Amino acid sequence: MLMKDANARLTQSELAHLGAGEVGYIRKMRLDEVTRCFPEAPEIDPSLDLWALFGADGTPLLLTDNRSSTFFKAAEDDLKTVTLQ
């Protein structure tokens, strides 16, 4: 029985929705990534350190130069946060 549970598989759709509405991830952004992930973003000073909050499915939620703001936004949206390196 234990072995059967260990071999359970997620469908591609189930995997894509894993953590949706529950988990968000925070990561530092490079300027060249900003236009791809946040096409509506204005021109940004290249010297700024940028941080982004994404939903578990990769949906961009927030772009900021203040890392703490990403945690506040996640808390506001009731998301548990993880940080990607």
The counted number of beta strands is 4
End-to-end Cα distance, whole Å, is 37 Å
As an assembly, this protein is: single chain
Number of domain modules: 1
Specify Rg, calculated over alpha carbons. 16 Å
Helicity level: 25-40%
Total of helices: 4
Strand content: 25-35%
Mean pLDDT: 82
Q: Biggest sheet, in brief?
A: 4 strands, mixed
**Which descriptor suits the 3D outline?**
globular
Category from helices, strands and their pairing: alpha+beta
Task: Order the strands across the largest sheet as they lie in space.
Answer: 3-2-1-4
Helix and strand succession?
HHEHEEHE
Low-confidence stretches: none
Verbal overview:
Helices cover 32% and strands 26% of the residues. By secondary structure, it is of the alpha+beta class. The chain starts with a helix and ends with a strand. The protein is built from four helices and four strands, in the order ααβαββαβ. The chain has one domain. It has helices spanning 2-6, 12-16, 31-37, 67-76, and strands spanning 23-29, 50-55, 60-64, 80-83. The model has no long low-confidence stretch (mean pLDDT 82).
Protein topology:
Elements: H1 2-6, H2 12-16, E1 23-29, H3 31-37, E2 50-55, E3 60-64, H4 67-76, E4 80-83
Keywords, please?
85 residues
Briefly, what is this?
The chain has 85 residues and is of the alpha+beta class. It has helices at residues 2-6, 12-16, 31-37, 67-76, and strands at residues 23-29, 50-55, 60-64, 80-83. The chain has one domain (23-83).
